[in-house]
From TrEMBL:
Domain of life: Bacteria
InterPro entries tied to this protein: DNA_methylase_N4/N6 (IPR002941), DNA_methylase_N6_adenine_CS (IPR002052), N4/N6-MTase_EcoPI_Mod-like (IPR002295), SAM-dependent_MTases_sf (IPR029063)
Biological classification of the source: Bacteria, Bacillati, Chloroflexota, Chloroflexia, Chloroflexales
Pfam families from the UniProt entry: N6_N4_Mtase
PROSITE patterns: N6_MTASE (PS00092)
Protein name: Site-specific DNA-methyltransferase
Gene3D superfamilies linked: Vaccinia Virus protein VP39
Family to which the UniProt record says this protein belongs: Belongs to the N(4)/N(6)-methyltransferase family.
Organism field: Candidatus Viridilinea halotolerans
Length: 1011
């Protein structure tokens, strides 16, 4: 059995991720680079401090007993007796067993430290499992009226962008190997581990579920095995995997999978064998192959780093004190023990706290470092625009007509090759003609297909760029996107509509252990806080949900918006027929939880009346006041002033029956009769009824909380809309556009901004475009989506809807489109930030740490990661700003195993950091000039230059030549990258200020706060 110090060492190795020595991505690569140093520090510097601390304890009791025992043994020896048989010797030995022993006490300290850290740590995360007593946990409570708590409440949900994404890596010869999860297992992938088994990645076995053989069965017929597990598709080797419960360790399954893949490659895919067997050695495994390396990375990316703790140091220190008080410091024993024994207790506590605090500091350094990477505002790594041709200057048409990539895109999206045999406009041809472009003004140009010079000329043609934008699409984790949007859109969004994953069935996302609902709430919590900041004071928030998470979500939203801001729990009838296969109830509805930013300022709009409602109003007597409908004049209760007789023009008398009365007093009734507002039927003899004129009726309907599918659509309508656009069912769980249209009608004016940060297939943009087409409005949208269908479904759908309002089988029915300009950007991901870290330690630093042990301890515990990662591209390399157009990051290129060196868009990133409302972007002889307004209303000029190409003297000339200080163009703030002398050009009567872009960029990028 391992000793307690060994158990603690093993646990610390787990806490500091030593077991993942073969992984060379993200935080694992960083920790592996420091593994030997950290291990040496723990073993040689830290743990020996326990013995040193306990060595200071003096036990007078034990010293006296040992002296007494020595004397008794000597006396027995002198008497010639067997000392071990003497009663006094036996008593003394028994007493010594229960008195202080340094080695025993040291062992207890190691044991209790291991117990403490093991309690709160599980597979990379720290969970709040404070024990009040055995199997009973204590929750933090600060006197709230209602307390919502969940296991991950104090953590950020991180692991989002890489779940179940395909994984691609390149062999040395450049060919690609593609790990792909089998779609046949997709339903099974959504089931949590069963019978105590965790889910593992295994080679796909052709669909056989629940096997215990590592997924290697079903491969006994030679060639069929290779075709089932492995395929060569378009020059790429595709290897299929499943994700299912399995008792084996992932490392064991990886070894089995590697052996099977190489076996198959040796038989059926021999051209791939050499590349797969390329060595990728590690310190622990000199024989590791490239295949084994990527199998390890692939499985690990789906298994670790789901959460980052918001305050790990504070959390663990509080829990340590609680642990010591409840499980180490036994007060009853202390009261009854002698002073030396109490001193031993205190020594043990001091040793525990000293070592635990240092371990906590080191763990907190790692957690805070990851938190810094998570919270820092992310770089924009790609910016492009989509614009209808009616907004593009005609001088650019020749370049557009000659662009083959754009033509092919239009054929694929809009079927323009079918525009033939029309007399009104030119036929399609390849290449395109300028006349064809002029005849099709709603073709949507995408700048990704054009040169930087073309893009520059296009953007320069817009006088007020941001004002002309109709939409913004962001390819990113929603937390990161909302973080970057804070300054630019704070208080400007009128309506938020989101449709998050329901956490059940196809929508269920991966989660750890038994924290299905807790993980989901952690994922929702932070994004909701960020999004609330973007709402204007009159704004409202809609969230679709079903029964699986509505209880927790309601309490979460109550906590973020306030209970008093709750508007309604709307019921949406999502299906039109019951499901015969339902095991319990056939679910017919979902919910929309709705909140106001400030319910006192929120204003609900009326829904438009329908033709079915207006048809009830007619005009049988040709009343000049227009159409009317009749209404009952009687109330079902007796009132003295309502009991009298009415005489019609034909002389017929009408009197209320017993227990009823007229709704109006007699004098008012006579006035209504005289003004022809009482209807006695076409012959004058019918029961009298009150005329209600359509012109007097409220021109709209008060929204109700039951939304029926006849009015807002159902799930099949949503599916049909997708199929109409694409010709096939390319997205699993869309919402009908009419559902979102209704929310917008209730909560928005014609020119408001709508945000959806779970954009999915892009239904919110579809709904906004529909509404604008219908009433000529200028509503705008922001959509955030991180999934791969951003490029395959969301963006193509929006472009299709812009181009034509009618679609069938993936083809436009008409080509009646809308004038439109949208921007789409992609952000650096958290994984990208991790993978672009570069740890550097100078020779001087290394020597200083070697010479100063006390400094080394403090450095290792608190400063190492921050200090040595400075200058990493993802943490802002200020030196690289000398040429801002050459700033690059390695960005995951659609699959987690392959990265591409990508130019960062520092210009666009800085615009968002400033919260700039961009008016114009222009490029003048290689220098980018941005003009706009910041959130304070100050006029801002930003000059981006390659310092080597435009040094300070030439910058001064450039600045004066452009006339940036003239009265007509004077700015309040001017930002320039690189040291400069522009301040010297300012006259005494001018007030503009110059700021260094680098300093402001860094301040704003890391100006983060916990949420």
């Amino acid at each position: 059995m391992a000793s307690n110090v060994t158990k603690l060492r093993n646990l610390l190795a787990e806490l500091f991720m030593f077991e993942f020595a073969d992984l060379d991505f993200g935080i694992y690569r960083i920790m592996n680079s420091k593994r030997t140093e950290i291990q040496r520090f723990l073993d040689e510097d830290l743990l020996p401090q326990v013995q040193a601390e306990l060595g200071n304890v003096k036990s007078g009791e034990r010293t006296g007993l040992e002296a007494e025992l020595t004397q008794a043994l000597q006396q027995a020896k002198e008497l010639g007796a067997d000392p071990e048989q003497l009663p006094k010797v036996k008593v003394l030995r028994e007493r010594l067993l229960v008195t202080y022993n340094p080695s025993t006490l040291e062992d207890e300290v190691f044991s209790q430290l291991a117990t403490f850290f093991r309690r709160y740590y599980k597979d990379g995360d720290y969970l709040a499992l404070r024990r009040y007593k055995k199997d009973v946990y204590a929750l933090p409570y600060e006197g709230e009226e209602v307390k919502l708590h969940w296991a991950n409440a104090d953590q950020y949900y991180i692991k989002s962008s890489e779940h179940f994404r395909d994984y691609v890596f390149k062999l040395p010869d450049g060919r690609r190997v593609h790990f792909k999860l089998s779609e046949a297992d997709s339903e099974e992938n959504n089931n949590k581990a069963t019978n105590g088994k965790d889910r593992r990645f295994v080679l796909w076995d052709g669909g056989t579920a629940g096997r215990g053989d590592g997924g290697m069965a079903g491969q006994g017929d030679g060639g069929t095995a290779g075709r089932g597990v492995m395929q060569e598709v378009d020059g790429e080797l595709v290897i299929h995997f499943a994700y299912r419960p399995n008792e084996e360790k992932q490392a064991t399954l990886n070894r089995a999978a590697a052996a099977k893949i190489l076996e198959l490659a040796g038989v059926e895919f021999t051209a791939w064998l050499e590349g797969l067997q390329t060595k990728a050695p590690t310190e622990k495994d000199a024989g590791r192959t490239l295949l084994e390396k990527h199998l390890g990375d692939y499985a690990a990316r789906h298994s670790f780093d789901y959460f980052i703790h918001k305050d790990l140091r504070g959390f663990l220190r509080r829990e340590l004190d609680f642990f010591i008080k409840s499980e180490v410091m036994l007060l009853d024993d202390i009261e009854e023990d002698s002073a030396p024994r109490v001193e031993q207790y205190l020594a043990k506590v001091r040793a525990m706290r000293r070592i635990a605090h240092k371990v906590i500091d080191m763990l907190a350094q790692l957690e805070e470092f990851q938190k810094k990477l998570w919270l820092k505002k992310k770089f924009v790594v790609a910016t492009n625009y989509c614009v209808t041709l009616d907004r593009v200057p005609e001088e650019l048409y020749a370049a557009i007509a000659a662009n083959e990539a754009q033509r092919e895109e239009w054929v694929r999206l809009f079927a323009i090759d079918e525009i033939v045999n029309t007399t009104a406009s030119p036929n399609y041809s390849a290449p395109l003609t300028v006349d064809f472009l002029k005849a099709n003004p709603f073709l949507v140009l995408d700048t990704q297909f054009f040169t930087p010079d073309f893009k520059t000329r296009l953007l320069a043609s817009f006088d007020d760029l941001d004002a002309q934008l109709d939409g913004l699409l962001i390819h990113s984790d929603n937390f990161q996107a909302l973080n970057l949007l804070q300054e630019r859109y704070r208080g400007q969004v009128q309506c938020i509509f989101i449709d998050p994953p329901y956490n059940i069935g196809e929508d269920q996302f991966p989660y750890k252990d038994n924290y299905k609902h807790s993980s989901w709430l952690a994922m929702m919590n932070s994004a909701v806080v960020f999004s609330r900041n973007l709402l204007c004071e009159e704004g409202s928030f809609y969230c679709c949900i079903d029964d699986s998470e509505i209880a927790g979500l309601r309490m979460c939203l109550d906590g973020k918006f306030g209970v008093d801001q709750f508007l309604a729990s709307i019921i949406w009838q999502k299906v039109f027929a019951p499901k015969p296969a339902a095991k319990t109830y056939s679910t017919s509805h979902d919910y929309l939880l709705t909140y106001a930013k400030d319910i006192e300022k929120w204003h609900r709009r009326l829904l438009p009346r329908t033709s079915a409602q207006d048809v009830l109003y007619t005009n049988p007597d040709n009343d000049p006041r227009g159409s009317w409908a009749s209404d009952n004049l009687l109330r079902n209760e007796h009132r003295d002033n309502g009991v009298y007789s009415i005489v019609s023009s034909t002389g017929k008398v009408w009197t209320p029956r017993n227990g009823t009365s007229w709704r109006h007093p007699e004098d008012e009734m006579q006035r209504l009769i005289s003004s022809n507002q009482i209807w006695f039927g076409p012959d004058g003899n019918s029961k009298p009824r009150r005329k209600k004129f359509l012109s007097e009726v409220q021109q709209g309907l008060v929204p109700e909380t039951l939304w029926e599918y006849e009015d807002v659509g159902h799930t099949q309508d949503a599916k049909r809309a997708i199929i109409a656009c694409f010709g096939s069912d390319v997205f699993p769980t869309p919402k009908p556009a009419k559902l979102i249209e209704r929310a917008c009608r209730i909560s928005c004016e014609f020119n408001n901004l709508i945000l959806d940060f779970f954009a999915g297939s892009g239904t919110t943009a579809h709904a906004v475009i529909n509404l604008n087409r219908e009433d000529g409005g200028q509503r705008k949208y922001i959509l955030v989506e991180m999934g791969t269908y951003f490029n395959t479904v969301l963006k193509p759908r929006i472009l299709k809807v812009i181009y034509s309002k009618d679609w069938k089988d993936g083809k436009p029915v008409s080509r009646a489109g809308s004038s439109h300009l949208l921007k789409y950007i992609r952000l650096e991901s958290y994984e990208d930030a991790l993978n672009n870290l570069d740890m550097q330690r100078s020779e001087f630093q290394a020597q200083l740490l070697a010479d100063e042990p006390e400094l080394r301890e403090d450095y290792m515990l608190r400063y190492m990661l921050d200090t040595e990662s400075r200058g990493s591209a993802s943490l802002l390399n200020i030196d690289a700003f000398a040429n801002p157009f050459a700033y690059t990051l390695k960005i995951a290129n659609g699959s987690v195993g392959e990265t591409r060196t990508t130019s960062v868009d520092l210009v666009e990133t800085f615009n968002y950091l400033l919260g700039l409302r961009v008016r114009q972007i222009d490029t003048i002889r290689g220098t980018v000039v941005v003009k706009g307004l910041n959130p304070e209303g100050q006029r801002v000029l930003i000059i981006w230059r390659d310092v080597a190409q435009l040094p300070n003297e030439e910058l001064d000339t450039f600045f004066q030549k452009q006339g940036y200080t003239t009265r007509d163009h004077e700015f309040d703030l001017i930002y320039v990258n690189g040291d400069n002398n522009l301040e010297n050009l300012r006259r005494d009567d001018e007030t503009w200020k110059v700021r260094l872009t680098e300093e402001e960029f860094k301040r704003l990028m890391f100006d983060v706060r916990d949420v």
